[in-house]
Amino acid sequence: MELSLKKLFETEKSLAEANARIKNERLTAIGELAASMAHDMKNPLGTIQSGMDIIRRNTTIDPQIGEVIQRMERAVSRMSHQVEDVLNFVRTTPLSLKPVSLNTIINSAIKSVEIPRTIQVVIMGDDVTITCDEKKMEIVFINLILNSTQSIPGEGKITIRINKANGNAVIEIEDTGLGVPQSVISDIFKPLVTTKQKGTGLGLASCKNIVEQHGGSIKFQNNPTIFTVTIPIHAN
Ligand SMILES: Nc1ncnc2c1ncn2[C@@H]1O[C@H](COP(=O)(O)OP(=O)(O)OP(=O)(O)O)[C@@H](O)[C@H]1O
Ligand SMILES: [Mg+2]
């Protein structure tokens, strides 16, 4: 009796393992498909964007058409952002390391995010030069600053603090926004977790991948909302 029960448990266990394997393979296949779709969408989106630029520059546009073009431009920019999100998440290319100042990376990230005039951004602390992949590290700060911007409904402030501690650079991004919703607190760094209607939920998952690839870590707290990125100053 005991022996057959043991056998039953073992069969159930291997069945569960087989199911998990199938699920994993399916997820991998979906990931590959998403990556290849995102990649193939990049060029046509670029063509639409430059087409709209040409129309804007070469025609006297009546205000109504101008508005339509503006809406189209916003839609294209949203699609481009989502495509970039998917690609950043699935692309784990080797790091191209060099010493870069955090101030430079963060300022360049700030420039690529559309921050409303009602939101004040301040950088505090002494600059730290870290050995990192500049492009990838910029993606981390673009995502964090964009999230902060999106969490502030009207007027507000984003404070970025740079510090050094135990051979690491510690960067805190604090915002006066609405805070991380309760429903996503435990899964916030997992892919496809979003509370936004137009979000992909890949921003923080990509940040985590990139930071961990550099041997660092990322965490957050609420009240006030602070995302803390810790990166070794010298890469191993
Ligand atoms: N600074 C923040 N303040 C409040 N909530 C945040 C903040 N940053 C992230 N979140 C919450 O975490 C969720 C996941 O963030 P993540 O950046 O991964 O995806 P997203 O912003 O929803 O979409 P995407 O970045 O792919 O466009 C957000 O939907 C939001 O609910
Ligand atoms: Mg985001």
User: Could you name the CATH class of the largest domain?
Assistant: Alpha Beta
Q: What compounds are bound to the protein?
A: adenosine-5'-triphosphate, magnesium ion
* Average pLDDT rating: 90
Overall domain count:
2
Number of strands: 7
Q: Give me the side-by-side strand order of the main sheet.
A: 2-4-5-7-6
Question: Low-confidence spans: pLDDT under 50, at least 5 residues?
Answer: none
SSE order: HHEHEEHEEHEE
Strand content: 15-25%
Helix content: 40-55%
User: Remind me, CATH topology of the largest domain?
Assistant: Heat Shock Protein 90
**Helix and strand composition category:** alpha+beta
Shape: globular
Tell me the major beta sheet. 5 strands, mixed
The CATH architecture term of the largest domain is: 2-Layer Sandwich
Secondary structure topology:
Elements (H helix, E strand, L loop, with lengths): L1 H57 L4 H28 L7 E4 H11 L6 E6 L4 E4 L1 H18 L4 E10 L2 E8 L27 H11 L3 E5 L3 E8 L4
Parallel strand pairs: 2-4
Antiparallel strand pairs: 1-3, 4-5, 5-7, 6-7
Helix pairs in contact: 1-2, 2-5, 3-4, 4-5
This protein binds adenosine-5'-triphosphate and magnesium ion.
